[in-house]
UniProtKB/TrEMBL annotation:
Keywords: Phosphoprotein
UniProt name for this protein: Two-component system response regulator
A Pfam family the protein falls into: Response_reg
Domain of life assignment: Bacteria
Domain Response regulatory: start-end pairs: 72-187
GO biological process, any: phosphorelay signal transduction system
Keyword rRNA processing: no
Organism, as annotated: Amphritea japonica ATCC BAA-1530
Alphabetical list of InterPro entries matching this protein: Bact_response_regulator, CheY-like_superfamily, DNA-bd_dom_put_sf, HTH_17, Sig_transdc_resp-reg_receiver
Residues the record lists as 4-aspartylphosphate modifications: 121
Amino acid sequence: MKTLTSGDIANYLDVTQRTVIRWINSGQLKGFKLPGRGNNRIQVVDFIGFLKENGMPIPDQLQQEVNSISANVLLIDDEPAVIRAMTRALKPLNQKIYSASDGFHAGLLLQQLQPAIVVLDLNMPGMDGFSVIRHIRDEQKNSTIRILVVSALADQQLDHAIAIGADAVLSKPFSNAQLRKTISEWLDPTVGI
């Protein structure tokens, strides 16, 4: 996915680069540092989300970029019926959807596909969902992957999933509309403006 520098964002918003860096350091704007020099990079979708959250207009130059985003979505669940239900729910979004039935297969697909979004269950045999989240978050190249947990586990375990790196959680049984809304907002933060 396309990224922007802190200087790019400063130019778009007519602020200083130092202001942008403060937003990143405080967590207001999601960004990551490149290895070595430590220069900041911000995904276009995260910048658009930041603009939306703060009631700022989206620059015309970025609107075309946002409209052209096409991303892989990886579904990870050991129940085939749940995979089928999620696939049907997400089909209207016109994204490439892949699935894995366990953490090991998911690890292989993560390497091959480099998905933008991972939707996973926590309770799976072998490598469980918590291990998958840790695996994703342990690698810098996966820092931009959004993780949605869909699980029937207790709230305390869902909170733990957020604490170790998941971006959001949905309880099973999940609402197709809520699943679709969450994923579509991550794919296009301008939805609902």
